[in-house]
Amino acid sequence: MPNLNTAIVQALPISFPGIQEQQRIARFVGVLDDRITLLRETNVTLEAIAQALFKSWFVDFDPVRAKMEGRAPEGMDEATAALFPDALEESELGWVPKGWLPIRLDSFLELAYGKALKAENRIPGPVPVYGSGGITGWHEKPLIDSPSIIVGRKGTVGSLYWESRPFYPIDTVFYVKAKRPLTYCHQLLKTLGLHDMDTDAAVPGLNRENVYRLLVPDAPANVLAVFDASANALRNSIDHSEAQAQTLSTLRDTLLPRLISGQLRLSDTMAEMPMEAA
Q1: Distance between CA atoms of 132 and 125, rounded to whole angstroms?
Q2: Neighbours of 132 (CB within 10 A)
């Protein structure tokens, strides 16, 4: 009966470079890994900046409170500061900027259903397939051609992912259609505690009608536009860095087996690498 045991595996012949070449390969791979780590750490920082700006403007209302105290709001020019009121008023949500009375989430945001796509029906391609746990595979054609936000519906309830590329959301997620800037909607959804809104069924699920009933302050369009301009600049930087990190990861994973097997020499690799990666 065919079998595989440790004796057979140990007897397999393998080839590998000498210790000095191994050390050179390790240094080379280490440089790539360090660069990938730096790019992704930078993205974490950029995302934190966007979150902090959203919280300051739309949760803590710092510009409004500063004007109430006779101070100039920090980190903004006079034209931007003028967009914020100088008083708070009481509402169902507590104290909100004057004129920003609460509205339902579904007045400007729709959670659209994804579509089933079994693994055996996926044709390999460049399109990320999203489930509630994130990217679950790749496909030939997208379901959605424009940037959007993916929201976990079944399984990992309330998970959130931003995707700038065309993508395919499967039936365990929602994707966002919005009448307000996606950058604003992305940060807003992070503050609503969606992960705590599961239906307590056998399979955890997010009921979009429960989400739609949530109330949020009705910030004016001109304030949202200024926020979107800043958040979009951060998002563009994040997308660029992530693309670089993915390119370097692919380069590393492609070259490493060939370097170890001796199919490729490190000197040849360095000569052919993009200057940015090197």
Answers
A1: 20
A2: 25
Question: Residues near 99 by Cβ (< 8 Å), separated by ≥ 6?
Answer: 85, 89, 220
Task: Provide the H-helix boundaries in the chain.
Answer: 6-11, 19-58, 62-68, 78-81, 182-190, 208-212, 221-261, 266-272
**Are 208 and 232 within one domain?**
no
Q: What's the pTM?
A: 0.86
CB 197 within 8 A of CB 158: yes
What would the two tokens of residue 205 be?
Answer: 């699920």
Are 54 and 186 in contact by the 8 Å Cβ rule? The answer is: no
CA distance 228 to 50: 10
pLDDT at 200: 61
pLDDT at 275 > cutoff 50: no
**Which of 217, 245, 262 represents a domain boundary (last residue)?**
217
Q: What are the pLDDT digits (tens) for 211-264?
A: 999 999 999 999 999 999 999 999 999 999 999 999 999 999 999 988 888 888
Mean pLDDT of all residues in 68-75: 94
Give the model's pLDDT for residue 5.
86
Contact indicator for 160, 189 with CB cutoff of 8 Å? yes
**Which has more confidence, 60 or 1?**
60
- Note whether 114 and 157 are same-domain residues: yes
Domain hosting 238: range is 15-101+218-278
**Total domain count, the chain:** 2
Q: Which pair of structure tokens corresponds to residue 19?
A: 């210790």
End position of a domain, from candidates 164, 190, 217: 217
Yes or no: say if 234 and 50 are a contact pair by the CB < 8 Å rule. Answer: yes
Q: Please work out, in degrees rounded to the nearest 5, the angle formed at the alpha carbon of residue 71 by the alpha carbons of 184 and 226.
A: 25
